Amino acid sequence: MSSVYILEPPTSGKVLLKTTVGDIDVELWAKETPKTCRNFIQLCLEGYYDNTIFHRVVKGFIAQGGDPNGDGTGGESIYGEPFKDEFHQRLRFTRRGLLAMANGGKDDNGSQFFFTLGATPELQDKHTIFGKITGDTIFNMLKLEDGLIRDERPIYPHKIIKTEVLNNPFADIQPRLRQVEVKEKKKKEKKPGVKNFKLLSFGEEAEEDEEESTRVNEKFVGKGKSTHDVLDDPKLSSKTEDVDEENDDVEEVNPEEQLESIRKKLKREHKKPVPTSTTTAEPIDTYESFLEEERREKKKKQFEEIQKEIQNVKKEYHKNKLKKKEEDIIATEKKVQEDKTIQEYKDEFDKYKNKKDALPKKGAGREQFTLNLLEKFKKKIQSMKDGEENEEDNEEEQAWLKHRLCFQDKNPVLAKDANRKDDDWFEIYDPRNALNKRRRGETVEKFKK
């Protein structure tokens, strides 16, 4: 599969499709298919694909969308007419996740497109490939073939919610303004209802009552109606009661006096003693007491748990403190040891430095010093050979002299006596030997014969 991806050219545009199955990232081959990519990007910028469905799904083959009608019969390009196919030799239907244009024949491209759900070599040189799905969003695209599908049409189709152009290779694209037609709602004229009294069992009586009520309504059109107008009751009179037209002079009330009276009333109400309840408090119910005991027990348990946690934290703190102290002690000891080693190294370095400084410079003195050292070394070797130890040697010289000079021992080494059994003696026992067989009481077969 790696060879397939290497053959495809690099992309130069990117669009994000927000669908009901999740986001789908689409990268476009704008250099290889400029007309198709320009058409697709401009339609995305105009929101042409918003709320359109994937109206055709063939499992393992394609998932088709981009039709505003939702049935595969609609859709138009930005050019106002179908545009030509654009084929490229490095773009082939060899895998899933490719984006191509749907058409009804040669050079019949509009707005509809489809995603491949597998390798579709039979579509080669028939449909224009102009993009591919990238990243993990290909798994969202594969969800388009899930669900109930009947005659290549999903029963519950997924749709494109929104499109976003993330990388536009065509800087000169200007989205067209879409004209939205506002349809005026016509008000329905209400027709007066016609009453059909023939449908009722008492239709004749109801019809007479209706006629009488219409006559009365016509009589009192524009006038207020009362019960004596509608009913023929002798007790009800249509005459109105005479009202005395004498207008009593209403006494004008001073607002300040009114405020003062309100204040006095409030003071009186404030001074009234609050009636104390003579009834004694009712005893606490047993159920309430039981609930109170449960609450106390819960609080007690919570308090004990908190105490335990505090003790555990204290123990952990002390343990960590002791551990830290031990680590500090080990670190100090290690540091002391390192300091001691460094000091020994420094002392040794200073000693040999002083010795080096004590050496005479080049000349006659240096030659004599070397001859004296050589003579001293000869004497030391002779004394070691004779078995005598030179006590005059300095302790400093003995310190670096770790190995003694040993010579080869020329004394003859005697061979071991085979008749003497030492600690390293071992006996060879062969069971096939005739002597060993006689010792075990076995007889030789030839004697038996």
Structural summary, described in words:
The protein has about 450 residues and is an alpha+beta fold. The chain has a domain at about 1-165: Beta Barrel (Cyclophilin). About 40% of the residues lie in helices and about 10% in strands. The chain is built from eleven helices and eleven strands. It has helices at about 1-5, 35-45, 135-140, 205-220, 225-230, 255-270, 285-360, 365-385, 395-400, 435-440, 445-449, and strands at about 15-20, 20-30, 50-55, 55-60, 60-65, 100-105, 110-115, 130-135, 150, 155, 160-165. The strands form two sheets. A nine-stranded antiparallel β-sheet has the order 3-11-1-2-8-6-7-5-4. Strands 9-10 form a two-stranded antiparallel sheet. The relative contact order is 0.07. The model is unreliable at about 245-250 and about 275-285 (pLDDT under 50).
Structural class: alpha+beta
CATH-defined architecture of the domain at 2-167? Beta Barrel
Order of helices and strands: HEEHEEEEEEHEEEHHHHHHHH
Assigned CATH superfamily of the domain at 2-167: Cyclophilin-like
Shape label: elongated
Cα Rg: 59 Å
CATH fold label of the domain at 2-167: Cyclophilin
Number of helices: 11
Strand order of the largest sheet: 3-11-1-2-8-6-7-5-4
Strand content: 5-15%
**How far is the N terminus from the C terminus?**
88 Å
Total strands: the figure is: 11
CATH class of the domain at 2-167: Mainly Beta
Q: What summary fits the major beta sheet?
A: 9 strands, antiparallel
Spans where pLDDT lies below 50 across 5 or more residues: 243-250, 274-283
Give the % helix. Answer: 25-40%
Coiled coil: 296-398
Subcellular location: Nucleus
Biased composition (Acidic residues): 242-259
InterPro entries: Cyclophilin-like_dom_sf (IPR029000), Cyclophilin-type_PPIase_CS (IPR020892), Cyclophilin-type_PPIase_dom (IPR002130), Cyclophilin_A-like (IPR044666)
